[in-house]
Amino acid sequence: MTQARSLPRVVYIHGDGVLYWSWGWVAALQKDLQSAGFPTFFELLPDSIEARAQYWMPFLRDHVRICESDVLLGWSCGAVAAMRCAEQQRVRGLVLVAPYFTDLGFEQVRRSGWVDAPWDWARVRANAGHIAMFHSDADPYIPQAELTQLGEHLQADLNMISGAGHFGAQDTFPELRALIMQRYGS
Questions:
Q1: Where in the sequence numbering do the catalytic residues fall?
Q2: pLDDT tens track for 1-37
Q3: What are the strands of the beta sheet with 131-136, ordered from one edge?
């Protein structure tokens, strides 16, 4: 008799400049995941406007208590935070929406502390059981060259969604939902 694999907790790490986590596709996704039996963590992180690493990393470690069985779902700078978490510890997977790894020429990103240190790509890959990226050909903030290079560094499964911008206007995100359900569902 084989034992069913338990569903991982999906930890959502939002981007910067947000006052609440439950907008658009994010709220719909959490509802769908919970209905399917996934444990979830979807909350507003401290310092949600500036989204500085000095506040988020201790919060993710001490409050969220990210662990090896978690899937980290990061959007924008939340994707950067998810990658930094995977540099430090094992996780079951990374699902990155509109990720980046440089300061993109933005002062706020430079001040955030996420991209100050060099990246240890081998460690991120080794610590993340599976890595998937969602990006758009119409992202106004992240150049395609950045996304291509990041995909190569991570050796990630790439999912390009045409015309999706920075993934901030959608009410649903069926491609993301399908990936999580298929990859991590029982």
A1: 76, 139, 166
A2: 444 469 999 999 999 999 989 888 999 999 999 999 9
A3: 40-42, 10-13, 71-75, 93-97, 131-136, 157-161
